[in-house]
Structures are given as structure tokens and as C-alpha cells.
Amino acid sequence: MNAANTLFVISTILVPLMLISLNYSAIIDFYAHDVPLNKSVIMANFPSDDPENFQNIRKEKDSICYATPSMNQYCYKKPRIFDGQERDHLYSLIIGDNGINGEVHFDRVGLEGGIFTIKNMVLLDEDSALFTFSDKDYRIGNKDRTTYEITEDFEFTTVVEKYDAFITHCGNFDGTGATLVQYLGVATIDELDYFVTWHTVITSEQGLACKYPEIIQHSLKHIFGEL
User: Fold this and answer.
1) For each of the chain's 227 residues, which pLDDT tens digit applies?
2) Is the overall model pTM greater than 0.85, yes or no?
3) Which residues of 42-79 are buried (b: 16+ CB within 10 A; e: fewer)?
């Protein structure tokens, strides 16, 4: 058998094996990540029985409202800044016309830091930023009890676009609850620029695969249509 025939035989064996391997990985990822995400439900971070909450914030002076690509409307209050208050990190409340609500975070552009597993954000343009995610020894609990913690060491950087949503961490060890964050771009408040993110709760009866950084990376590819 000459060299050309040998290479042909090897290729006919190796190529199908490689394709099988790639397809197997995709199938595993689909059932481990996509199926639980497809069956998950986004919840209000602050449960409320008041149907007028959205309209109340919408009518408030200096409130900021927008529509997501999924055509859901959200409004949040301009954060109040008091004399002597530290202005690097501000907070507010947000609510959608779909009843989903959460907490808004404003982090100064140009300063290192971010919420939860977000280690840093670097502005690229009006609609995108370079996010660095890391474990940061993340733990939920108190001195007597640990509700949840991340034990993996990881760090990765990726481009996040305005309105991208992603899971930053699970909230319990069975993966039935997690924190969902959405990036809203940059806002200027009193002549200072801030990265704007907000978070709410996502639940999954099946349980999410709380492995890092995979859960963050796969959620970045998911379309959370309820937001």
C-alpha cells in the first residue's frame, strides 16, 4: 500500500471518529446546560402583589425606561446620591411590565470590579464591554453555615453585548436556583459614567449544572426571552 492509500485509509477512520466525538460533546452539553435553561423560569427578585409597581416607577421623576430586544419594557429609578456618599458603586430598583424585577448596580467605568463573579469590565464601545469572570472565592452563607460556594478556580474574559443576560452563580447546591444578570450598557449620572447591570432570580426544577466556568459560558449563549 503506497503512502497516498495509507493516508486515505487513516483519514476515513479518523474523520468519522472526530465527528462522533464532536457530536457527542454537543449532545452532552445540550442535556447538561440547554435543557435545564430551556425549562427554567425567571422570577421577580422582590415578590410583590402590587400590579401598579411598574407604572409607579415609570411615572417617577428621572426614572429611566427602555425596551429589550424581546420587546419587554423595564423602568428603573435614578439612584439617589446623598452628600458624602461614595459614588463608585450605586444602586437602584428595576421592574418590567411583565412583573420581573431586581436590583440595578452602577459601577464606575475605569475602575476595576463588578458584581458576583464579574471581576472586571472594560468598555469597548457604546454597546459592548470586555467582561472578566473569576471565582473570587465566592460564597453564600454566614459564619455557621454555607448555603453555597464555588470551589473551582477559574478566570476567563469574553465580550458582552448590551442586553446580554447570563448566570453568574448558583444559589444552592442542588442548582434549582441561580442569579441571572443582564448588562444594560453605560449610563451617565451627574457627569460620571457607570456600567449598568441588574440581577434577578432564575429557577429550574430539573437543576442547573453548577460547574464553572461552563455554566456562565453556556448561559451567555442562551436567549432569555422573558427579559
Assistant:
1) 554 455 444 455 555 545 444 454 555 555 456 677 888 899 888 877 676 788 888 888 889 999 999 899 999 998 887 666 678 889 999 999 999 999 999 999 999 888 999 999 999 999 999 999 999 888 888 888 998 999 999 999 999 999 999 999 999 998 899 999 999 999 998 889 999 999 999 998 888 989 999 999 999 988 888 88
2) no
3) bbbbeeeeeeebbeebbeeeeebeeebeeeeebbbbbb
